[in-house]
Amino acid sequence: MTAEIISIPRANLHEQVTRRLRQMLVEGRIAPGAKLNERELCEALDVSRTPLREAIKMLAAEGLVELLPNRGAIAVQLTEDDVRNTFEVMAGLEGQSGELAAQRITDAELAEIRAMHFEMLAAYTRRDLSNYYRLNALIHSAINAAAKNPVLSATYDRVNARLQALRFRSNQNEEKWKSAMREHDQMIEALTARDAGAMRAVLASHLKNKLDVVLEQLRNGTGDMPGEKAR
Question: What predicted TM-score, i.e. pTM, was given to this entire model?
Answer without folding.
Answer: 0.72
